[in-house]
Protein 1
Amino acid sequence: MSDKPIIDWDSFQKARAELGMGFIRILGYFREDGAKSVAAIEAAMRAGDATALVIPAHTLKGEARQFGADALADLAENIETFARQCVEHRESPSEYLPEVVRLRPLFNETQTLFDAEINPLVERRGFGKRVLVANQGFGRI
């Protein structure tokens, strides 16, 4: 495992600024599409189909990178690259099973971090230092 953080928060904030009002909607698309990509990668691995690994891994890589989910993007890229090599050499992707097994937990952890960052009930005191607060002083004098 890398010491690199799961999310590059600077990239996340840049995407947030660039996407503006559409950010939450597009992040929701990433949640849905990412879950489909993870499921497709898992299914392809169960079937031992290297060719079927390539497109969902490539898609997940690009979408994750857009939101600064670099750890997820890096893992998806590794899976894609390995799958392409397997296709070229006509080999089974089975030796990459441990990497594919890491994918869903990392995707879920990434979503949890995104949810914490966009939650309006979280008081921000710098990235990685979030405190859930009950009312944040709303309506107080």
Protein 2
Amino acid sequence: MLSVSAFRRVVRASAIYDVLMTAPFATPWTFLLLREHLNALNVSLGGAPLPLFGPLHLLISSLFGSVVLVWSVLRMLDPQPRFGRYDAAARYLFSTWMAWALLETGQPLLWLFLVPELAWGLAQSLPLQRAGVGREGRAHESLLR
């Protein structure tokens, strides 16, 4: 079990990770630069070249990047346990779709996103120790607190 203060550090750390990983997705221009690096990395891992992105693909990646950045800043500034729980749920959803894409495409690059996503989800799913609960008391935490 984690203390609330330790859990808040996990929530903040996951938010910082998200800012670093998703900032390049926030604009079409930065994503196109990132895409070239991701393509080279995927090919070096034995995958096929990534498909070219058109304007609608860039729109979707920029929307994704923008929303994740805003959500990440909220969690960095106010790392509440309930935000960590919601983030864990979102990470499980993201992981599901990444696993689906991995099964459909076999692109090895997806492992570099899927594994940390699952790890952060698991870390933010750990039970919390309630403040003031003794050894004989039951420590538990609501999923949304």
Protein 3
Amino acid sequence: MPAIMLRRPLAGIVALSALMPFAAIADDAVTADAVVHHYADLAHANYADALNAAEVLNERIDELLANPTAETLNAAKQAWLQSRIPYQQSEVFRFGNAVVDDWEGQLNAWPLDEGMIDYVEGDDYQHELGNEGATANIIANERITVGGETLDVSDITPEQLADLNEIGGSEANVASGYHAIEFLLWGQDLHGFEAGNGERPVSDFQTGDDCTHGHCDRRRTYLDAVSDLLVDDLEWMVAQWAPETEGNYRQELLAESDQEGLRRMLFGMGSLSLGELAGERMKVALEANSYEDEHDCFSDNTHNSHYYNGQGIQNIYTGTYQRLDGSVVEGPSLEDLLAQENGELADTLSEQMEATMARLDAIKQAAEAESSPMAFDMMIAPGNEQGSELINEAILTLVAQTGSLEKAAGELGVTSLQPDDAGHQF
């Protein structure tokens, strides 16, 4: 976890004020402008890491396609898992920044009806009712019919896959992004609430007589195209946050008032905490006992996705981000700014975020235990009291920190924050 930037206690500031000129203390004060500028720096570093990890994933996929073996398939899977670490931390920038929210669906849309992409086992295949795309199987068919429209998909290209997202008006029709790649690498998870993830054979990527499940050439082309598209999309987003670049989103954000910048930061943190992570990603899956609503459902990596979402929220509050190379980006933070207005609330929010990370870590540790690991899809099984307790405890801490984020907004002069709760009652 990134180191939390130490903050001088308020009492220390008061004591020092008797010995130091007022102007010197004012010069040391953290400003809203500095906090918003550092927020943009954090975004740039985070997306740059996500891009670097996606480029490694793309290389491992190229190696898999050049030489399909159990070893190269496993290397591609490991690269995918690594790529999720920075990307999930970046989701805190999605809410409040329309440039990210409008773009994010092409990279991280879920749940998806995987039968739109490739073969599925019919008896255990859960999908959106009435969705023609759920069984379109682009890999097996050069023409598909969805929503009464027949489409030519003979050429599988990054541009074609981008155009196919949400065809027929269904959000479950997802052709690109991390989860499309995840499905192609792991295949369906047919274990339900039992231990085990997807078990796609490497022979699905082999050619000639070694090919299994047919259409291996198109499956190989699809995997190559979708991984290229992921890199292209992340390159675009890195450019949106790059310093000294004319006309990008960073310049647009920094041209806004400091209060608007703080609003976007706090809204993003609160909405990811409440409506998205506590609600859509945890509460929905638990209450419905639905492993189809598990975020990384093919790889059983959901515990890490949740953990790094929580880490992303804490990153913004503390102004720190630990990069994949181990270096730490740090600077003026919301925590510092809030401490100048209300040290008690700043400490409370810091403690609540630590509590949230402890609860998310408990889920992570249970899923990765050497003896009897319990993945997220096992935790949400009917009657699993231990799993239910782990998830509910994390939900409660996320709700608590969201309440304090709303109070923090008031202390910082940001009115009518109203984080997105996605319609959930907590």
Protein 4
Amino acid sequence: MLQAKCKRDYHKFSDPALETRVNQVENGIYTNPLIFSSPPITQAEYTNIQEGYITAVSEYNTYGIVKKTALTTSRGKMISTVDLIASYVDERAQGDESIIILAGFEPTSTTMHSSQPLSVIENFTLTRTNPLEITVLIPPITGYGSISYFCICSEGAPIENLSIANGQIVLDNVTTKIRFDYTKSKKKVFQGLSSTVTYYFYVFASNAVSVSPISVVKSIVAVV
């Protein structure tokens, strides 16, 4: 039997997914002082690194490649900080999955499953297939057991603070029309859309042991 530890899958996360994990870890560690009484850094130090990373992401999204080095440096510092806390949680948990989950991490598998936990879906395509119709194609995930594929569509504006926590979708302050496709197929067809409106799409998947993080958003305009 393997001993559960904190998964370091966030090393390969997109920035939106990494931001979600960073928030989960902050909430898990610093709101449970009876369990995590002596984290390796203070909440103020963690928040300072977190805010620097979020600022770097925002500036990169605004100014592009000229901010790439700053984003890479800030992202690396953020991941190293989460790694430091993960090591602390591993020592504190001693294989107890409930403590690992409480800390905001996902536990590694303690048995050899044919299905392994899923990471974020990096690539998917959007195509206008008919008037006022958009088709989403998600690339197949192989080697992770039986996979179900899901898609969320937002009309007119992206969804703020969209995340998945413990397999549950979290929508915060939603003011746009939202469509969900839970048909489990890799191909999603959204019909009856509005002309000249921009639609924003997010995808994720699940298998027997996990739900993947939400993907990076992609957008396309529906036209007649």
